[in-house]
Amino acid sequence: MTQAERLLIAGEWVPAESGRTSRTYDPSNGTELAEFAEAGRADVDSAVAAARAAFEDPAWRDLSPDARGRMLWKVADLIERDAAELAELETHDQGQPIAMSTGVNVVLAAQVFRYYAGWATKIEGKLSSVSVPDTLHYTRREPLGVVGLITPWNFPFAIAAWKLAPALATGNTVVLKPAEQTPLSTLRLGRLCVEAGLPAGVVNVLTGGPEVGRALVAHPDVDKISFTGSTEVGQQIAAAAATDLKRVGLELGGKAPSIITRDADIDAAVVGNLQGALFNTGQACGAYTRFYVDAKRADEFTEKIAAAAQTLKIGPGIDPDTVLGPLVSQEQLDRVAGYVAGGVAQGAQLVTGGDRASGRGLDSGYFFSPTVFAGVRDDMTIAREEIFGPVLSILSYDDEDEAVARANDTRYGLAAVVWTHDLTAAHRLAARIHAGTVFVNQLPLIDPGAPWGGFGMSGWGREMGTFALDEFTETKGVWVNLAR
């Protein structure tokens, strides 16, 4: 074990004031990866103070938009320079297949920084047509101040990037807190920000458990919290933030429905839904989880997707042939197993999977077999609650109105997908489904130019695109008396 990873506060790498540390482990085999500092309330106070000082410092406050954009572009260059190392770090710490960390998450992180580097010079106000004589009115877009970014364990590097880049592009300063299960790639991102020349205190990184996040949310000098994680924690953050009315952005849980119409290409739907359900071992809020299949095609779809699931290579994420990696922890493994047992108890038909994957070097990791249930009812727990694992629930329907009503019968509304050859039906269904993003005949994708966020209990606000600029800025009106 190397020296413990430290906290980034005011441009310096320092131990936690208490001296406490925690450890992170490779979920594919349980081996210890690193020791890291366990921040406390005093460290939160120091990081917020550093961020506030940096926000007021002319070195950041008066930096030209072009210079700020160049710094973000430099971060993107450094991500690409270290891409292979970052991908391996992410795979060991989180468990995701190396193909995903290499080809999707690290690539997306660089893309996000470049996208918002371009926006740094394009954050504009507007001239307003007011009816007061001899008066000029215009608006300015200004940064909020100090923002707390709290990220989850499922895509730690990519999500840290897509929060951090727009926060910096708009001129804010940041305290970034990764999940305690997967801190390593975020710490490395902090190092890249320092190397890119961002002034001390503009980006601070605190590692530790939930108490760090709670202290950050409660801190009176934090102007906004941007959180990605569970709906339950999001509710707690919203309640706590009400005390001082700080801004809150929440990207929370999902239970994405997939509607497979009678005319759909079933073979394409099987491949797309399997990948859309099981990427990152189903540990994704946008993963496809409820499959509403036209009753005429349900048996065919069930048979084919179950057969395809049985062929997937399960193994350590670092193996380039792995399709299904481990779950992130023993706690998550137990959670998924509990949902599966509950599905069986409530009468769902277990078609394949349903247990921990073992043998072939898997016994020391947190592996779970891809699991397909048929005959699922809408009131079953596996059809209503977010499982965050490789569990697919198949339900059948008789007509479009029924499918839409049942797909919308959920507290979530993050993502959905439609599989059809009928272009008219595709647009009609996309309009009727209550979700922040609807995909048609494709995998769940995220792009810097497209908004991401949900309806209902899936959260508040939108990330990505120009929408993130709104999340990290205030609008100020300026009145100028032109009368002589």
TrEMBL record:
Active-site feature positions: E251
SUPFAM superfamilies: ALDH-like
Transmembrane annotation, as ranges: none
Occurrences of domain Aldehyde dehydrogenase (ranges): 13-477
Key words, A-Z: Oxidoreductase
GO MF entry, a single one: oxidoreductase activity, acting on the aldehyde or oxo group of donors, NAD or NADP as acceptor
Superkingdom field: Bacteria
Family affiliation: Belongs to the aldehyde dehydrogenase family.
The name this protein goes by in its record: Aldehyde dehydrogenase
Organism this protein belongs to: Paractinoplanes ferrugineus
Taxon lineage: Bacteria, Bacillati, Actinomycetota, Actinomycetes, Micromonosporales
Gene giving rise to this polypeptide: dhaS
